[in-house]
Amino acid sequence: MTNQGIFEELKKFIPSALSVIRIHRRISRKRFALKIKKDVNFVRGLEEGRQKVSFVQLEYMAGALRCSVEKVLKLAQFLKEGEELSEDEVLEEVKREAKYQIWALKQR
Fold it and tell me: How many domains does the chain have?
């Protein structure tokens, strides 16, 4: 399946994925808005689910966050799967990911 096809399936989770990446990269809403040539209210609306995003906009926003569309889609998929998990399963997944990140850092 193409990235655009995956995007269509995960459209509901894309704004949350973009928000997580923005926060992880320590980029303020204001700075992100400037990078994508929108106002802060657009970014707020996007993150709160009031704004829709097209695939072309996703490509542009991913570039502004210095990440690939694939990474955004992968995170959106994780968020979708997380919606279906119990709280204990989510915590276990977070622990596994944290252990992996620590291991990856030690390998450098």
Answer: 1
